[in-house]
Write a structure and sequence with these properties.
The complex is a heterotetramer of chains A (575), B (319), C (505) and D (279). Chain A is an alpha/beta fold. Chain A is built from 18 helices and 22 strands. The N and C termini of chain A lie far apart (58 Å). Helix content of chain C is 31%, strand content 23%. Classes of the chains: A alpha/beta (575), B mainly alpha (319), C alpha+beta (505), D mainly alpha (279).
Chain lengths: 575, 319, 505, 279
């Protein structure tokens, strides 16, 4: 039997000299009908380019197939070599036989057309439906991807839907043509973990229902475990390992696969928490947050009145103990970053107290931001960047200061030469190391790490986490570690606070919170985290909406009630 | 729509600022209505005669008193009386406005009609010969002074075709549409030439950006044919900068195209204003500037509304 | 071949457009289509002084007398006139056929009211200064009007030939509608006026001057003179006023067009300011006069259109320029005069108005280049007309390039500048006993031959003292389709002879 | 240096840079008098001569050498264009920066004043300034600058609003950096790219505006040559001496073309997206 897709020695390059320096350097694989192939790799591995080559969308990004073949079995039994097919043949195949969904649901839908119009177009093009039939089909498609009030939502524009909803619309659209192959390019990476679980569940369900083959691109081994039949691991444009899921996960052959499986944090349900917690006796809070509330007025400005407020953070209370890591976990919109920014004074607290113990320097609290590309001014040299905190503190840029820069740079794994260079000359991981070194310039007591490793590739993530743990003990730092990633939190946190819709719903020792979650949201959150051990597992499709943070003018929430779950573990009482 | 209301609220503020600026600066220019009317002969006037004329022209009072009087008139919709035309300022402006408006609209139609397709073509053929050709023509168009285009058009028309557009007075479209078109099409081409060039350049740039957006890739992934990708999916998203540019240009054109009006002898707002300055017809200058500024604000508002029409994120508010 | 076809096609298209355009104007066959670049600035015949206003008002109003094309005084509203022997009474007989366009008879009361309005300071008529010798006006009967003068005033009659002395209905004076409603006894009636756009005139059926061969005049204001030329060339304008000699010289190249050029009375002049050093020195002023090559200025800046002139531009009084002081460029003499004055080159600013006259900037540039030869450095300041007028009237300049209006008589032309009591002495900043007395003599002398002698002396002395450097007259131009006939250009620039024009086909 | 290299490598930017370089060279030659003839000298016997070996681009009404005047005129026009755009950039940047950074009432007042200037008809604004102060090079500069200042204020304010939300600005605030430090090092430095592009495009427009002002008799004062003035002097000689219009016209067009090509290339090079692509 011929496979659905047989790729041989695929080579793809970009630009004028596409042949000379291909990004994909000879990839081969077979995909049987109804099977799922996961392509795993980090950025630069060529996995996305491979995916975009299969329906030749790579052509529109300046890419060019420079070698190899892609034999695709058509429903009528003929075989088409996609690598050499012309554009009109490809237009006929796209959508109809090969569907695709992308990483960024926020930008992948056309903002000026309604969701309904976009799905209807897919039905019109690929099924020949028109008018009312297309509309009915679009409604059905939305229902099939579990969008409530489908008829109503057809009239919505993309921006009126949440990220998860949009990704469902994308799926509905991709499936409109009943394709026999679905390419999913990191479809959940940009989504919150609970939403990710829903999308994964949906994909698994639909795949089974439609007997469709799937190519699933991801960087997350944990996610792969749940869905793939076959795994192909890519590194720098080449396939380093390929085989059935269980074989690859349980007995990886290639060093890189092993590295991905071992070095990268995987969530283990509280079993991997740190055990180096400082002695119980000296639990002195360096930052005490009491009843922190941050609200952003809506409207307002020149000649305008305020109509209400976004209650971004509502009555948050916690202590950060010297030398400890407190992780704040939550999904987007939970208020975790706003909390961090309020502690740094970047946003004004509407009410509540933030007390900082006097520290080793004038500014005992420093911060490292999520995006190492955005948090370093691209127009300044590393030396200027590193000098800034000292200049702000009134120090002079002299040999002693430069000595400290070199010391810190070397401590975070960079060389002294770095001082002369500009941020764009560094990789993402190196830049984050720079940010960390800069945060340490003034010898702080507390470092707030706002999603500090989230933007990094998984293997880099692991190394930065290790560095952070080393620095913590060396410099006696307390970390306020903001993250959405349970696996990372499990690695670094001594204590965990879970935030949901602007409020802390559960807080306590990391081991307790992660292994015995009490609050319903915490449990839902933990259940959604993919685990290596949960292979081909069905996730539940759960569509609980997040409560709106927008409150009318003058709104005040009920005071919270707490329940003590354990010694250092308490949760909010649910209504 | 509170946003609209808020925008409208800033209008009087800006207009009062504009009126103050024009009211006092026009009076700072040497010469007054008397020298403008009599030229060097005004030197023959006796003081009594001069006073009589100053009274006649309404420039005998202190400037602040004049402004107060004028402003209170404006509040009641009275822009004053033009001393050179002997008629209400608003009447004169409203007589001249249809020409200016039509000329601006016609130029914009030409500019958009040529510029958008040319820009889209260039973007889809990026870096190919057709793109390079379009870009070079556009740059030449942008760099040719309007008066050169106008003078050449008139010269060619009169020498080779024995024809010039009706000059001096305006043939309104409701009187004779054909003659109206014959009169305005050439000035409109003169204005539309550079305008079309700008539109081409901006449509091309914007289209290039949009064509690399994710949703265009999505459209292709679902098998949308090339033409539909460009016109249905990409173009509506690429129009915002085009609207911005057209709005600014249109706003300027509504203020009158002085040079083109001069060359083609069209009685438009631009020349009216220029001549009013030349004749030191203060009330008329003030009226014109206020009217032009008001138009500009309205056009800006329309541009914002056009954004909303084009982009549902603006229309319905981003989440 | 291909080119030819497309050109024919385009021509066809243009013809179609043209046809549709001409449809827009109703019954234009009997209309004279006139174009000019500058429009009238107002309708009050007594108060308006701009050339453009006068050209329009001359078609609507009539004074008592007017100039013919030879600048002789001929009847208009008045059929005859007579000075008393002592020269202190001037009596007019009014043409019995003279009627205003509303059909009302022109009477002596109308004349009296008109002049009283002109003399009333509240009217703000600048021309009043020419009529100050009028002590009182009598209207003994409807057809007779008598002006009683406080002193003999020979040039008065010439002054009365100006449209500023137009006869308006007495009713309009009392009702105060002169400035707003044009109601005169001239050949045409103003039907509509859109300032700076167009005027529509129709023939005044009551006009006493005879029949006019067409029904009316449509005047279009085309601010750019190249557009006027294009419009003439395309046959869309019958008749046009042209100011810019650069444009005028193109007219004869067009097979269907005719240029009418006549030297005007106005004169181009470089005004020096003798109140400012070193122009206070006679030798310096004379040096400047000697250093200027007037023919060169004329040939370059005016492309040869016009002629070199002394102060007097009216043929009856003008001297042969070659007899005047230093009218041939003489650099050596100029340098010698400079040395004599002890001045070794200097810098001055010369003011000029933008586009008024069109050649002002060019004249300034040629003068700049010529005066550089004797070490005088001119810095040109071009400014908007009204700004210029403001500076000019205040006498606030070192030098000024000007085009000053001329009269058919020397006295009203120069008394304002060079008599001690002249209103514009602060502009000339120059008085001279002999000049003053010559002007006064010329004013009261009624004998033509004697007057010519007096003014020849005046002209010689003035050029020798060189407060100003007179350069040239400009031509007054009109351009017309060759199918038009009967127009006689006049040095005053009046378009009155349009009344004799036939349109032809 | 890096940018210069990138422009030389840019297919069309190279042409633009070459044009500008040639113009600058011509302008410098014009300024220091290395011209075929004195641009002001009137060879009045050789009036309105067509191009020949002695007068490469013919002569004008006064017998002045067009080629020499063009060389001097490029300098004059460029000085006006650079100075006016420079002034507009300076003022516009300060206003846009402060309005965007402080926001609130100041923003409202600043930007509404800019709206006021924008709403004021541009040519009229120039006209009023010139009529009040009198024409001349400095006045032209001020007048053109007044027209472009609000545009620059808007161009700057947009990026400032984005920049002030950027992480590196927040980072600077967590260090307690002063406002002056943040404005100069974090804001201004990052505004250089959008401003450079806008400046080159505005230069082209300023050249056109100068030509327009001269057409209306309000620009450079004779006999000093500027490209616009030369064209406006030539317009009534279009038939007798077409070279008088053609050469300055082509010079302006080519110059503007140069600025446009250069500006577009700069935009390509400085565009953060293209930067992302190349790194």
């Amino acid at each position: 039997m011929t496979p659905l897709l047989r790729v041989r020695e695929l080579k793809v390059g970009f630009g004028r000299k596409a042949d000379a320096n291909p990004v994909v350097k000879g990839v081969s694989f077979d995909l049987e009908a109804g099977q799922t192939l996961a392509i795993v790799g980090e950025s630069g591995s060529g996995k996305s380019v491979t995916a975009l080559s299969i329906n030749r969308l790579v052509d529109f990004g300046g890419g060019k197939i420079v070698g190899g073949s892609m034999a695709f079995a058509r429903p009528d039994g003929s075989v088409l070599d996609i690598a050499s097919a012309d554009e009109s043949a490809l237009t006929g195949i796209r959508g109809r036989e090969i569907g695709m969904i992308f990483q960024e649901p926020m930008t992948s839908l056309n903002p000026v057309h309604t969701v309904g119009a976009q799905i209807e177009e897919a039905f019109r093009l690929n099924r020949g439906l028109g008018g009312a039939a297309a509309q009915a089909a679009a409604r059905e498609a939305l229902e099939r991807v579990r969008i409530p009030d489908a008829a109503e939502r057809l009239r919505y524009y993309p921006h009126q839907l949440s990220g998860g909803m949009r990704q469902r619309v994308m799926i509905a659209m991709a499936l409109a043509g009943n394709p026999r192959l679905l390419i999913a390019d990191e479809p959940t990476t940009a989504l919150d973990v609970t939403v990710q679980a829903q999308i994964m569940a949906l994909l698994a369900e639909l795949k089974a229902e439609l007997d469709m083959a799937m190519i699933f691109i991801t960087h997350d081994m944990g996610l792969v475990a749940g869905i793939a039949d076959q795994i192909m691991v890519m590194q720098q444009g080449e396939v380093v390992e390929r085989g059935p899921t269980d074989a690859v996960l349980d007995s990886p052959q290639h060093a890189y696969t092993k590295h991905l499986l071992e070095a990268v944090p995987h969530f283990r349900g509280g079993a991997a928490v740190r055990t180096d917690r400082p002695a119980e006796g000296v639990r002195k809070p360096v930052v005490a947050v009491d009843g922190l509330t941050v609200r952003f007025p809506i409207g307002g400005g020149f000649l305008a009145r305020k109509s209400g407020a976004i209650h971004a953070v509502e009555g948050v209370t916690f202590d950060l103990i010297a030398g400890e890591t407190l992780a704040i976990v939550g999904e987007s919109g939970s208020g975790k970053s706003t909390t961090a920014r309020a502690i740094l004074g970047l946003v004004a607290a509407t009410r509540g107290a933030i007390q900082t113990a006097p520290g080793r320097s004038g500014r005992p609290v420093q911060m490292v931001f999520q995006d190492p590309f955005a948090s370093l001014n691209p127009r300044l040299t590393v030396e200027s960047l590193m000098a800034e905190p000292a200049i702000a503190a009134g120090q002079r840029v002299d040999a002693r200061l430069r000595e400290r820069m070199v010391f810190l740079l070397e401590r975070v794994g960079l060389s002294a030469e770095a001082l002369e260079r500009y941020p764009h000359q560094f990789s993402g991981g190196q830049r984050q190391r720079l940010c960390i070194a800069r945060a340490l310039m003034l010898n702080p007591d507390v470092v707030v790490l706002d999603e500090a490793v989230s933007a990094l590739d998984v293997s880099v993530q692991a190394r930065v986490l290790d560095l952070l743990i080393d620095l913590q003990s060396e410099f006696g730092l307390a970390y306020l570690f903001i993250s959405h990633d349970m696996a990372v939190v499990e690695r670094i946190a001594h204590r965990v606070a879970v935030m949901y819709a602007g409020e802390v719903v559960e807080i306590g020792a990391a081991s307790a919170v992660l292994s015995q979650p009490h609050h319903a949201y915490t449990r839902r959150l933990i259940a959604a985290v993919p685990e290596m051990e949960r292979r081909r597992q069905r996730y539940d499709v759960d569509t609980t909406p997040v409560p709106s943070l927008i409150k009318p003018k003058g709104f005040e929430p009920q005071p919270a009630a707490w329940i003590e779950v354990g010694a250092d573990h308490r949760a909010r009482v649910e209504e | 729509m509170p946003y609209l209301a808020r925008r409208l609220l800033t209008f009087p503020l800006i207009l009062i600022g504009v009126s103050l600026l024009v009211f006092f600066s026009i009076r700072m220019i040497p010469g007054d209505a008397i020298t403008a009317m009599l030229g060097t002969e005004s030197g023959l006037l006796t003081p009594v005669q001069r006073q009589a004329l100053a009274e006649y022209f309404g420039i005998d009072q202190p400037v602040l008193v004049q402004y107060g009087r004028w402003l209170s008139g404006v509040m009641q919709g009275d822009l004053g009386l033009s001393v050179t035309h002997g008629r209400p300022v608003l009447t004169i402006i409203l007589e001249r406005f249809p020409l200016t408006l039509e000329l601006a609209l016609l130029s914009m139609v030409i500019a958009l009609g040529i510029g958008v397709p040319a820009g889209v073509l260039a973007a889809t053929q990026s870096e190919r010969p057709s793109d390079v050709t379009v870009r070079i023509i556009a740059m030449l168009g942008q760099s040719t002074p309007g008066f050169v285009v106008g003078l050449v058009i008139i010269y060619v028309l009169s020498v080779y075709f024995g024809f010039v557009p009706t000059m001096g007075s305006f043939v309104p479209i409701w009187v004779d549409p054909l003659a109206n078109l014959a009169q305005l099409i050439f000035p409109a081409i003169t204005l539309g030439f550079a305008f079309a060039a700008s539109v081409t350049r901006i449509s091309r740039a914007s289209m290039l950006d949009v064509l690399s957006d994710d949703y265009v890739r999505t459209a292709r992934a679902k098998g949308v044919p090339k033409l539909s990708v460009v016109w249905h999916h990409a173009l509506p998203n690429a129009l915002i900068p085009v609207v911005t540019l057209s709005g600014v240009e249109f706003g300027y054109l509504l203020g009158g195209a002085v040079i083109v009006e001069q060359i083609f002898a069209l009685p438009g707002l631009g020349r009216l204003t220029l001549e009013a300055i030349g004749q030191r017809d203060y009330a008329l200058v003030q009226g014109c500037v206020l009217f032009i500024a008001f138009n500009f604000l309205i056009v800006n508002l329309l541009v914002d509304l056009a954004y909303a029409a084009l982009d549902p994120r603006i229309r319905l508010g981003a989440r | 071949m291909n080119k030819k076809i497309s050109r024919t096609a385009l021509a066809g298209m243009a013809a179609a457009l043209l046809a549709s355009a001409s449809l827009a104007l109703p019954a234009q066959a009997a209309n004279l289509r006139l174009a000019w670049a500058q429009d009238a600035t107002g309708l009050d015949p007594h108060a308006q002084t701009a050339f453009s206003s006068l050209r329009l008002l001359e078609l609507i109003y009539e004074p008592l007398v007017r100039h013919d094309s030879a600048l002789d005084v001929v009847p208009a509203v008045a059929e005859s006139w007579e000075f008393s022997d002592d020269g202190q009474t001037l009596t007019f007989k009014i043409d019995p056929n003279a009627k205003f366009s509303d059909g009302a008879q022109v009477t002596s009361e109308d004349v009296k009211a008109s002049f009283e309005r002109l003399l009333d300071e509240a009217t703000g008529a600048a021309a009043r200064s020419n009529f100050l010798s009028i002590a009182s006006i009598d209207a003994p009967d409807p057809a007779t009007v008598v002006f009683n003068l406080s002193q003999p005033d020979a040039p008065l009659l010439v002054a009365m030939a100006s449209i500023n002395a137009a006869v308006v209905p007495a009713k309009a004076v009392t009702e105060g509608t002169v400035a707003t409603t044009a109601l005169g006894s001239g050949p045409f009636v103003l039907d509509s006026w859109e300032p700076n756009s167009r005027e529509q005139l129709s023939v005044n059926a009551h006009w006493a001057g005879g029949d006019i061969a067409y029904d009316g005049i449509t005047i279009s204001v085309l601010p750019d003179e190249t557009a006027i030329l294009a419009s003439l060339r395309a046959g869309q304008t019958d008749f046009a006023l042209i100011n810019d000699p650069l444009v005028a010289t193109l007219v004869p190249n067009e097979p269907n067009l005719q240029l009418n050029a006549v030297p005007g009375l106005a004169y181009n002049v470089l005004q020096l300011n003798p109140s400012r050093a070193p122009m206070d020195k006679l030798q310096v002023r004379q040096a400047i006069s000697c250093a200027v090559d007037r023919q060169d200025v004329l040939d370059t800046a005016l492309v040869g259109e016009g002629k070199v002139t002394g102060p007097l531009t009216m043929p009856a009084y003008a001297s042969d320029p070659s007899t005047l002081f230093c009218y041939e460029q003489d650099i050596e003499k100029a340098k010698a005069l400079m040395a004599e004055a002890g001045v070794d080159g200097f810098s001055v600013k010369v003011i000029a108005a933008t586009g008024e006259p069109p050649v002002a900037s060019a004249e300034a540039q040629v003068l700049q280049s010529q005066l550089a030869e004797i070490g005088i450095k001119l810095e040109i300041e071009l400014m908007e007309l009204n700004v210029y007028v403001d500076r000019w009237l205040a006498g606030d300049f070192d030098m000024a390039v000007a085009q000053n209006g001329g009269r058919a008589d020397p006295y009203p032309m120069y008394n304002r500048y060079f008599t001690k009591a002249g209103n514009l002495v602060k502009v000339s900043n120059f008085t001279d006993d002999e000049i003053d007395s010559l002007l006064q003599q010329g004013r009261v002398e009624t004998d033509i031959a004697k007057r010519k002698e007096i003014f020849a002396q005046f002209e010689a002395r003035l050029t020798e003292l060189a407060p100003w450097v007179w350069l040239s007259t400009s031509n007054t131009y009109t351009a017309q389709l060759k199918t038009l006939s009967g127009f006689e250009p006049s040095a005053t620039g009046t378009l009155f002879s349009l009344t004799k024009v036939t349109l032809g086909q | 240096m890096r940018i210069l290299k990138a422009i030389v490598a840019h297919p069309t930017g190279r042409i633009g840079a070459a044009i500008i370089a040639i113009y600058l060279l011509l302008a410098v030659c014009g300024y220091f008098g290395f011209t075929p003839h004195d641009p002001l000298q009137q060879f009045r016997v050789d009036r309105l001569k067509p191009p020949s070996s002695s007068y490469l681009m013919g002569t004008d009404l006064f017998g002045r050498d067009t080629a020499s005047r063009l060389m001097a005129g490029i300098g004059q026009s460029f000085i006006i264009a650079f100075a006016s755009v420079g002034l507009a950039t300076l003022l516009g940047t300060i206003i846009g920066l402060l309005a965007g950074w402080w926001g609130g009432l100041l923003d409202g007042v600043f930007m509404r004043s800019m709206d006021m200037l924008l709403a004021f008809p541009a040519i009229l604004l120039a006209l009023l300034i010139i009529a009040i102060v009198g024409p001349g090079t400095a006045t032209s500069v001020v007048a053109i600058a007044a027209v472009y200042t609000p545009i620059f204020a808007r161009v700057v304010r947009g990026p400032v609003l984005t920049l002030k939300r950027r992480d590196f600005v927040d980072a600077a605030r967590t260090f307690g950096s002063s406002q002056g430090y943040i404005l100069s090092r974090h804001m201004l430095l990052n505004l250089v790219a959008p401003l450079t592009v806008q400046v080159t495009l505005a230069l082209a427009w300023a050249l056109l505006t100068e030509a327009g002002l001269s057409f209306l008799g309000l620009g450079t004062q004779p006999p000093a040559p500027s490209l616009g003035l030369m064209m406006s002097e030539a317009r009534n000689l279009m038939q007798q001496a077409p070279w008088l219009l053609a050469f300055p016209g082509l010079t302006i067009m080519l110059g503007i073309l140069g600025f446009n090509l250069f500006g577009d290339a700069l935009r390509d090079i400085l565009d953060p997206r293209s930067q992302g692509r190349s790194s």
